[in-house]
Design brief:
Helices cover 0% and strands 60% of the residues. It is an all-beta fold.
Length: 119
């Protein structure tokens, strides 16, 4: 079993910053990609950003230049630094990992953390 523990969500004012963390633990041999998704009320879950094992990154157009994804491979942890937050960034943020264990590839989701951008 793999567990993903997210933290860092909360209420932030427009223009503010927030840092999300997601730590993975359990039966993991190696982690390939790590990413963040979000889901706003009434909308589909969408990819925000992901980072490969080698450090390559990709971002949704809506967050480019404002959000930065990073990872600490020694800690099996992925971060999302969110700057210049806007009300439209309000959503539940989920981390996801693609990992290798027991000679197979797996994917796992975090439980989600609420980010609310409001004055």
């Amino acid at each position: 079993q793999v567990q993903l523990v997210e933290s860092g969500g909360g209420l932030v004012q427009p223009g503010g910053s927030r840092r999300l963390s997601c730590a993975a633990s359990g039966n993991i041999f190696s982690i390939n990609a790590m990413g963040w998704y979000r889901q706003a009320p009434g909308k589909q879950r969408e990819l925000v950003a992901f980072i490969t094992e080698g450090g390559s990154t990709n971002y949704a157009d809506s967050v480019k230049g404002r959000f930065t994804i990073s990872r600490d491979n020694a800690k099996n942890t992925v971060y999302l630094q969110m700057n210049s937050l806007k009300p439209e960034d309000t959503a539940v943020y989920y981390c996801r990992i693609e990992y290798y264990a027991d000679y197979e590839d797996f994917g796992s989701w975090g439980q989600g953390t609420q980010v609310t951008v409001s004055s």
